[in-house]
Write a structure and sequence with these properties.
Largest interface: A-B, 61 and 70 residues
CATH class of the largest domain in chain A: Alpha Beta
CATH architecture of the largest domain in chain A: 3-Layer(bba) Sandwich
CATH class of the largest domain in chain B: Alpha Beta
Mean pLDDT of chain A: 94
Oligomer: heterodimer
Strand order of the largest sheet of chain B: 9-2-1-13-21-20
Shape of chain B: globular
Low-confidence stretches of chain A: none
Shape of chain A: globular
Helix content of chain A: 10-25%
Structural class of chain B: alpha+beta
CATH superfamily of the largest domain in chain A: FAD/NAD(P)-binding domain
Radius of gyration of chain A: 22 Å
Number of strands of chain A: 28
CATH architecture of the largest domain in chain B: 3-Layer(bba) Sandwich
Mean pLDDT of chain B: 95
Chain lengths: 421, 502
Amino acid sequence: MKLKYDLVIIGGGPAGLAVALEARRNTVKDILLLERDKYLGGILPQCIHNGFGLQYFKEELTGPEYAERFITKLNDNQIDVKTKTMVIKVTSDKRIIAINRNDGLLHIQAKAVVLAMGCREKTREAIAIPGNRPAGIFTAGTAQRYINIEGYIPGREVVVLGSGDIGMIMARRMTLEGARVKAVLEIMPFSTGLIRNRVQCLDDFNIPLKFNHTITRIEGERRVKRVTVARVDKNLQAIPGTEEEISCDTILLSVGLIPENELTGESGIKLDPITRGPIVNENRETEIEGIFACGNVLHVHDLADFVTEEGKIVGRAIGEYLKRNRKFRSQPIKIVPGENIAYVVPQHIDFIIPDRKKIKIFMRVKKPVEKVKINLLDDKGKLLGSYKKRIVTPGEMVSVYLPEILLDDKLKNIIISIKKD
Amino acid sequence: MKADVVIIGGGVIGASIARELSRFNINIILLEKEDDVAMGTSKGNSGIIHAGYNADFKTLKGQLNIKSNSRFDKLCRDLKVRFKRIGSLVAGFNEEDLKKLRELKENGEKNGIKNLEIIKGHKLFELEPNLNPQAKYALYAPSAGIIFPYKFTIALADNAVINGVKVLLETEAQDIRIKEKQVCGILTSRGLIETRVIINAAGLYADEIAKTAGDSFKISPLKGEYHLFDKQWGNLVNHIIFPIPTKLSKGILVTPTVHNNLLIGPNSCRVKEKDDLATTRAGTQEVYEGARKLIPHLPHQDLINSFAGLRADIEGREDFVIEASKKVRGFINVVGIESPGLSSAPAIGEMVSNILKEVVQKISPRLELNYRDDFVETLPEQPRFADYLDRTDEWQEIVKKDADYGEIICRCEKVSKGEILRAIHQPVPARSLDAIKRRVRAGMGRCQGGFCSPKVLKILSEELKISPLKITKKGIGSEILKTETKEMIKETGVKFKDEAKV
């Protein structure tokens, strides 16, 4: 089957949903949303806990409720949706090949494409934990799906490795189902998830969170029997003599998320080695004009609310792109991560900003520091702007508005650094 | 239950023997204690079909490897198993290594390999641009190849079943029944099977089986650890690259796999237990160090799996043991099939077939071995979506006939529901998540089943008409799920912080 659309969005999670609605609001006509699962919402339908929407809707919602707010609007906005449809190829000239049961293979030509495929969880294999390979080792998200979607509990006695948000949320979820969560282990000296999750998911249930600890061995031939855990040194290496055994039948992993960019890479788009997402400009447009990316496929966000915001940036930008209503700067401004900054998004500013619209730069810090200044400098070290923050931590994304100095057409680089105030 | 021949062990050797013997018009049962074939050494190995220059030409290892090597093209075509004859290089770094390479070449030529070549200088780096720049020489063996090892085993067993062999999974051989120095039966975990011929292809456990017939071997497992990288890295090397071999092993190699992953390993470490498949920190380091000597830059960040396999090494013996027992009539030992066992499997099957011809003369009543005229040599084509990505029009036709082939279940390896259903209903059926993975690669990719395992579990449960709670990762005892939601809480309750304070 051959199809033509103005905009094709790959992925029906919070990013794709936001793009679809915002693009429609910006007068984009024919929109097709492709989703590989049988329902829309991405990972939201399995996130039955609350805490969604506080930023965006100013009220507290569960994941399914948050997704529903967008999904119900798709029909009214005449956005075409195909679920259970897997995209297998995106070309640089915006042809998309997808497959599903009813249509078989779909060949779609788009004027603009949005990559919104989300991310996947890092596995036990990716971090090479020594030991056996029995049943009972799950990524936290997979366990979440088994419980909240399929209706089955995958373990009775649980050790969680990693203090990512899903790990902490699943520690609470398993506890509420009657399982015993013996410990949450974090190899770093700080939590990699949100502070509120640490309080509400672990502290409130007396679940011990052990910093500077990791699993050094998994035992059990068919099902997990026990793990050996050890304290780690500054180089994250296990310290001999600190080992202790914890018996358990289940290990949940929350050790990081990886943007799922196989389609992106295969279409020839360059990826940022740190974010593992595409390199984008302020419109979240990749190096191929008209192919955009947003949400966790671009970089891993803390909150669905932030993903929605990013989707809206893209939705608006596609309106401008299709109307050819934009002006390139004479040269792009590169945003360069400086001291204690792991990465920044967007990586460059390409356009002359209409209406003095403000541009927000998102970044993740390497180490937690209290009472800091976020400094923006030009090539010569001249301070362009400075913002105070009470605390920065790798678990929580930091954002700043770029100063109006951007109107300066000669500016080549903006270096962002975080320093103790 | 009755059978003319019982084969113990569903590894590549048992499966190859089963297929070979299924050419005869006799009743054959293959026993496998696990929930699938290829569960031992046949799944934890390098997947290499060796050229055959390593083993001495006077040994079975040398002869059977060479005899088998040239057969893999047709065999894999017939059985629809991936095999690529990509050639191997043994890398040398100095004059002493060169001497060893020459010895290997000489031995290989004695074995009958004609196209061995010692390569020097820039030609080496034309063949392998990412090879350690300090390498100076290599022994090039174009006839070495890579294979999908467990799929090969499964295909041999499938083909055997099509030709009448009965494969009994989760059926453990427990004791051999002997009457007047002749095999008369075998006791299994599912009852007694009357038989006059038993073939012991029990891999790591072959010594324990042999003991019940009075033959004594001691199998002392040698563990090898491996690391597998994402399939974007298969092109890092073009050939199987070995270091200079030692007495104990062919060394830690670097190779692409038939699915274009990159594989490094194995080390070689003597272990006590036959189920010690744990990877270790020391082993990991050893494998990385070994592999880095050949290919200095390895893609650590794209590691997707680590695993270990055990070699069935016979203590105090260098060669395979493939012979009729001298103590009991009707008992054939196929023991100590370590490397190059996979490479020798076709010829081992034939050798056992020839031994059987002699054995049946000596047992009473005699067993007639007549070739069946309806032997089916091939397996049907099993189309995989992943192979049709550049031929989508052809796949469209397949989806038109069966919509299940249009529903993609495993996103990383692009496996359709149709392929998974086929695996559940093939001659040796997949009943667990790992068995599906080995047949169609669902869960074999970068997310390691994170996304597809709940879906595959559901399909298994629906097709086998059993509760999801009964679905396992790899047989009984490895169930994935514990209870339905709201069930566990009835037994255990929840303690909130405030309650604890009260």
